[in-house]
Amino acid sequence: MKVAIEMFSMIVAVTLGCILFASIISSNNQVCDARDFYNVVVNRIEDSNCNNEVIEQCIEEAKEKGYQLKVEDLTIYAEHPSRFVKLEYGVVIPVFHLFGEKFNKQGVIEGYAR
Fold it and tell me: pTM for the complete prediction?
């Protein structure tokens, strides 16, 4: 009987550990997706030489993905356009999300497109 109780408690502990690690991996994937999207946006803005139409398309695409993209013009010389790009995204850890909204975290990625 003692062995059965030990095995059951060990199985429960392993199961809870797997669920927790899967949640952490999921939140890490959300951060990686946001970083990948940010890199794509910066590359598109740089490749278009800071074209306003491309910037508007990127902002709309960010809204569709649930991100908030802000692009600020920092151009000093007309022949060298520069933009400050800021991406705000949310990270949800699925297991902790069950306990309320206070476990949702905001992430920010900032940089420049030149």
Answer: 0.85
